[in-house]
Specification:
By secondary structure, the protein is an all-beta fold. The protein has no helices and eleven strands.
Length: 124
């Protein structure tokens, strides 16, 4: 069993930055691909970014490309999401997730374990 705990959310003005963290329990963290998703009120949960277990490969949704950066520290069992140039439309609950797929996963159904989420609110 894996537990994921997100932190770092909050209220920020448009154009500002936040860094989300996701701490994972379990010794096998470093062997799994990880991802971030978000869900805005009244909308489906959508893919944001994913990172391979090595940290070498990453993939981003077009809406965040160039503004968000996903990274990981396997020694700390933690994955990060650095969010810059935030926009009001980035407002959502952000979830980290762990995948057992070999390829870099971008679909919700490819992820097995989920955190409880952290709220990000961007004011205009």
């Amino acid at each position: 069993q894996v537990q994921l705990v997100e932190s770092g959310g909050g209220l920020v003005q448009a154009g500002g930055s936040l860094r989300l963290s996701c701490a994972a329990s379990g010794r096998a963290f470093s062997t799994y691909n990880m991802g971030w998703f978000r869900q805005a009120p009244g909308k489906e949960r959508e893919f944001v970014a994913s990172i391979s277990w090595t940290g070498i490969f990453t993939y981003y949704a077009d809406s965040v490309k160039g503004r968000f950066t996903i990274s990981r520290d396997n020694a700390k069992n933690t994955v990060y999401l650095q969010m810059n140039s935030l926009k009001p439309e980035d407002t959502a609950i952000y979830y980290c997730a762990l995948s057992r797929y070999n390829d870099l996963p971008i679909k919700r159904e490819q992820y097995t374990y989920w955190g409880q989420g952290t709220q990000v609110t961007v004011s205009s």
